């Protein structure tokens, strides 16, 4: 089974500091009913007070603030829910007699290791699921029954695990130990001896300094992020032939500390996260089936000819926040990478777009570099690109070749904001849907540059130097699909004329607009939202007729003008139109808000 890509995208954008929930495991909540379901009205005498007993074998005493273990539990019960209570201990005789128990949920109590007597789980010969996360345990139970399948001890203070805690458990599949105080010395030598079907081991957020040895060969997921691991020895992972997901981000790995063969035998590995370490090079001999390789936030300065190009399955390569220069990237570094579609290389030291980008690339995030020039050839082979982010580089209009984007017939999203552009680049592909050019020095708009952009929906030009007089007639003529136009923070003295009919959102805040002509919105009958905040408007300069035919208008923001402007007051609109004070949205506080409920 391959990891689903949609999930991966989410993962790779969020993995770094997400608290790892065991609940991500599909078999984590085996509890076979929902509280309050139809069957929950059994009038059975043995159900402890305040608890729910949906069947003879299920007792739910969760969330009752219990300080002590419930009395009179029937010996035959199989599932006992005691999560979210205040238990500090469990008397040996009360628990050990429940020999039919399969599920015991003690998540989020106040249990200490002292409060769990030795051997308290030993007689529970049918126990499969044991949840003890969010308690105050300092040592793991010395012995769990051989029937156990899933164990969650996350978010305790564990510093010690014993040989028979997880050893000799023929059915054990998943072990969650994240957010504890585990050091390597607290783990037994052969922690999983005789436990041969373990697939998931989560040890993130502990104090490990190296990868535990003798891990079961059956592992598919191993999470070791947020530890202090500084070394990975040569044969460390040589038996992990099933491992698909290896998380090592936020450790102290340096390139010297990682053996050159360390990852070479991980033939099933699909997801490798080494971000936020101290690597200066990409690890050598990466196995060929990796799909997602996360190397962000290291000190990597080079990509050698064969460091990633042999990873044939690679789809996502994340190299952001490193020290890459163009000289450090080999000419053939990405050659033959037929599946690579997402390359994040932002926040590095690139001065130009690396040559020979992977041919199948769809998303290139190359923002926050030092790129000064886009040549005719930079994007000559990347026909599949749909998303290109060149923002916050050092681009001048004169240094972007007028045909640079000509081959990008699938480009939908282009971001060149935060550069030094004075003009909208020429020759933009007609496939564009979102164009971001804010924070440049654009001072004029000509009709040609937008003429092919018939699919363009959103255009961001905020923080430029545009005057109404420098917008050429016909500029908006062909942008038939434009719904959002952001011209905030420019030099406009009135509403630009002939805006496209498709327009719904118009941002004109922080300009110099002093007057609104009666016919200002004639060409935009579909407009919904107009931001006019912080201009130079007075009540007299805002004729109500300008708005009276706008059937879909929901909001006009005139905050921060020279006078309080109440568009509604004299409005000829019928009285179902209300003025509403709403909580400020997205940094805007609306003091004059026109609400038209007919929409
Ligand atoms: C449970 O017992 C109560 C009173 O003892 C009674 O009113 C109720 O109808 C009984 N419910 C069922 C489902 O038998
Ligand atoms: C426990 O059960 C016994 C008889 O089975 C009963 O007398 C006693 O009241 C019960 N205690 C509680 C707390 O329900
Ligand atoms: C990273 O490695 C350098 C030497 O290569 C070392 O000086 C530095 O302390 C390391 N940083 C961390 C966070 O381990
Ligand atoms: C480009 O990067 C900036 C961050 O600087 C981000 O806000 C923007 O959404 C990105 N653009 C695209 C098209 O992804
Ligand atoms: C618009 O597209 C046509 C053909 O697709 C092309 O010939 C023309 O040069 C383009 N115009 C601009 C301004 O890019
Ligand atoms: C609004 O119109 C309704 C009838 O359509 C009328 O009953 C109501 O008094 C009017 N309200 C105001 C404030 O004019």
Automatic annotation (TrEMBL):
Which ranges carry the LRRNT domain?
A: 46-79
Q: Which SMART domains match?
A: LRR_BAC (SM00364), LRR_SD22 (SM00365), LRR_TYP (SM00369), LRRNT (SM00013)
Give any Gene Ontology cellular component.
Answer: extracellular space
Lineage: superkingdom: Eukaryota
> Do you know which PROSITE patterns this protein is assigned to?
LRR (PS51450)
Disordered: where is this region?
Answer: 576-599
| Signal peptide start-end | 1-23
What keywords tag this UniProt record?
Glycoprotein, Leucine-rich repeat, Repeat, Signal
Compositionally skewed regions (Polar residues) per UniProt: 589-599
Could you identify this protein by its name? Podocan like 1
Taxonomic source organism: Latimeria chalumnae (Coelacanth)
Q: What are the leading ranks of the lineage?
A: Eukaryota, Metazoa, Chordata, Craniata, Vertebrata
């Amino acid at each position: 089974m391959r990891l689903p890509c949609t999930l991966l995208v989410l993962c790779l954008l969020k993995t770094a500091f997400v608290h790892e929930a065991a609940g991500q495991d599909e078999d984590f909540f085996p509890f076979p009913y929902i509280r309050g379901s139809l069957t929950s009205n059994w009038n059975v005498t043995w159900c402890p007070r305040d608890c729910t007993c949906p069947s003879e074998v299920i007792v739910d005493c969760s969330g009752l603030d219990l300080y002590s273990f419930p009395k009179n539990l029937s010996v035959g019960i199989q599932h006992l829910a005691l999560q979210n209570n205040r238990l500090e201990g469990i008397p040996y005789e009360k628990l050990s007699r429940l020999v039919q128990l399969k599920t015991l949920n003690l998540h989020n109590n106040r249990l200490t290791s002292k409060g769990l007597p030795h051997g308290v789980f030993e007689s529970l010969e049918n126990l499969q699921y044991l949840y003890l996360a969010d308690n105050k345990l300092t040592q793991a139970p010395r012995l769990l029954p051989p029937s156990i399948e899933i164990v969650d001890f996350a978010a305790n203070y564990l510093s010690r695990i014993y040989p028979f805690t997880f050893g000799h458990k023929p059915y054990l599949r998943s072990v969650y130990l994240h957010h504890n105080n585990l050091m390597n010395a607290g783990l037994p030598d052969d922690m999983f001896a005789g436990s041969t079907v373990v697939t998931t081991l989560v040890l993130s957020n502990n104090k490990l300094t190296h990868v535990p040895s003798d891990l079961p060969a059956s592992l598919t997921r191993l999470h070791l992020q947020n530890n202090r691991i500084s070394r990975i020895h040569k044969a460390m992972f040589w038996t992990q032939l099933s491992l698909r997901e290896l998380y090592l981000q936020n450790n102290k790995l340096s390139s010297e500390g990682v053996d050159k063969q360390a990852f070479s035998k991980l033939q099933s590995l699909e997801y490798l996260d080494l971000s936020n370490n101290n690597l200066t090079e990409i690890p050598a001999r990466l196995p060929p089936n990796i799909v997602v390789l996360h190397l962000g936030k290291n000190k990597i300065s080079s990509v050698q000819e064969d460091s990633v190009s042999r990873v044939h399955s690679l789809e996502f390569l994340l190299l952001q926040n490193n020290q890459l220069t163009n000289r450090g990237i080999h000419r053939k570094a990405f050659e033959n990478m037929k599946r690579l579609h997402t390359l994040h290389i932002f926040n590095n030291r690139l001065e130009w777009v690396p040559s020979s980008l992977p041919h199948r690339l769809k998303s290139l995030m190359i923002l926050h570099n030092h790129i000064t020039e886009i040549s005719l050839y930079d994007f000559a082979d990347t026909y599949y690109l749909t998303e290109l982010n060149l923002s916050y580089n050092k681009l001048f209009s004169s240094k972007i070749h007028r045909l640079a984007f000509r081959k990008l017939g699938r480009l939908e999203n282009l971001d060149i904001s935060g550069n030094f552009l004075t003009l909208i680049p020429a020759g933009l592909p007609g496939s564009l849907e979102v164009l971001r050019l804010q924070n440049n020095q654009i001072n004029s708009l000509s009709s040609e540059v937008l003429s092919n952009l018939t699919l363009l929906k959103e255009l961001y030009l905020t923080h430029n130097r545009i005057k109404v007089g420098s917008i050429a007639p016909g500029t908006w003529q062909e942008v038939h699909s434009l719904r959002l136009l952001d011209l905030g923070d420019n030099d406009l003295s009135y509403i630009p004329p002939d805006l496209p009919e498709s327009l719904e959102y118009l941002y004109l805040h922080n300009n110099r607009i002093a007057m609104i002509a009666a016919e200002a919105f004639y060409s935009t009958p579909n407009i919904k939202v107009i931001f006019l905040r912080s201009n130079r408007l007075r009540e007299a300069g805002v004729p109500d007729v300008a708005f009276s035919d706008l059937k879909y208008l929901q909001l006009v923001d005139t905050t921060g003008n020279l006078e309080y402007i109440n568009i509604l007051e004299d409005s000829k609109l019928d009285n179902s139109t209300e003025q509403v004070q709403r909580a400020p949205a997205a940094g805007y506080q609306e003091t004059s808000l026109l609400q038209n409920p007919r929409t």
